[in-house]
Each structure stands twice: as C-alpha cells, then as structure tokens.
Design a protein that fits this description.
The chain is of the alpha/beta class. The protein is built from eight helices and six strands, in the order βαβββαβααβαααα. The chain has a six-stranded mixed beta sheet with strand order 2-3-1-4-5-6, sandwiched between helices.
C-alpha cells in the first residue's frame, strides 16, 4: 500500500487536533503505520491550524509537501483555499461551508473572498462542501463540527463504520460520546 496523506486545516479552537487524533487512532486499529504532526500556529488567537496525517504500510515522515495530499479536511473554506497547493491532482477536499472571518476581515482591512468553491473546483479538486455547523447543532452542539467533517470524509477511507464509532467512544470524554456518535452519523 502506498502512503496516503491527509491535511486537516482550520482555525484555532475548531477541534482540528481532536479530529487528527480520531483519524490517527482509527487508522492504527487497521494495522497501518500512522504518523501525525501538529502545527499549532496562532491557534489561541483564531489563526490557522494545520495537522498532517500520513498512513500506509510504512511511513517515514509525517510532513506533507505541496502536491502530496490525497485529502484536505477543511473546517472553513478560506483554509481550504489557502492549502489547495498541497492537494495532489485528483485529490479530494471535504470542507465546511461555514465562514469564519480572519482578523484582516474583522478589522475591515480586507473583505472575505467570494467564490472560493468555484476557485477550488477550477483547480481540478473534487470538492465536497457540507454545512457541518448545521449538522453539529442538530447533533446537539456546534463544537461537534470536527466529528461531522470526519463523518463526511470517512466514506472515502477504507475504515469500517464500527471502527470509527468505537474510536469515538474510546477518545471522547464520556459525557460527549453520544453527541459525537450522532454528529459522525449525520454526515455519513
């Protein structure tokens, strides 16, 4: 098996680190070599956060270079556009449709870019857009956006649904397990 590379991108506080932990743990249960690397950046200030997850029979490095990502799991469309150069030809982007204004937009120095989905698709990426916030709220909490997005991406990975559900049960605090199981299922 060749190495598969996933970028998980978002804004600080969205749960990208939990998403990478869940993905990594689900992959390990499948007997795969998994490497995860977290880049926090300005996560405490609402800045960009990226996590690399690479898996296969043998993975030598957790780092994903430009043009190497098979998947980008994006918690926000601007982040999907920002990391688009990392996607390989024929790659898949699963993104939340939610818009989170970066600081230059908040201060009025810039406007939020329009037409991001069309721009992404024009570059040849397969784009799966999902209103993860709506589904997370339906599951019981807006904080479950990360698990909704994982559920949407899960259909592209060769991991049985029960493995995902067990991984959630084992890695999410007990009081949030049912909410996250529902969030995962709503997206898939």
């Amino acid at each position: 098996m060749s190495v598969t590379s996933v970028l998980i991108v978002g804004v600080g506080g969205q749960g990208t680190l939990l998403a990478s932990k869940l993905l990594g743990n689900a992959l390990v249960t499948q007997g795969l070599d998994v490497k995860v690397s977290e880049v926090h950046g300005m996560s405490q200030r609402g800045g960009s956060v990226i996590t690399y997850v690479r898996y296969g029979d043998k993975v030598h490095s957790p780092i994903v270079d430009e043009g190497e990502a098979d998947f980008i799991l994006s918690f926000e469309q601007l982040e999907a556009a920002r990391y688009l150069p990392y996607l390989k030809k024929g790659g898949v982007i699963v993104t939340n449709t939610q818009q989170i204004d970066p600081m230059p937009v908040i201060t009025g120095a810039m406007e939020y870019p329009q037409g991001l989905a069309k721009e992404i698709e024009a570059k040849g990426a397969t784009l799966i857009s999902i209103d993860a916030l709506k589904l997370a709220e339906e599951a019981g909490s807006s904080k479950a956006v990360n698990v909704v997005l994982l559920g949407a991406m899960a259909k592209y990975l060769d991991i049985p649904k029960e493995v995902w559900l067990q991984t959630i049960r084992e890695n999410v605090p007990a009081r949030f397990v049912e909410l996250n199981l529902k969030a995962f299922t709503l997206a898939g």
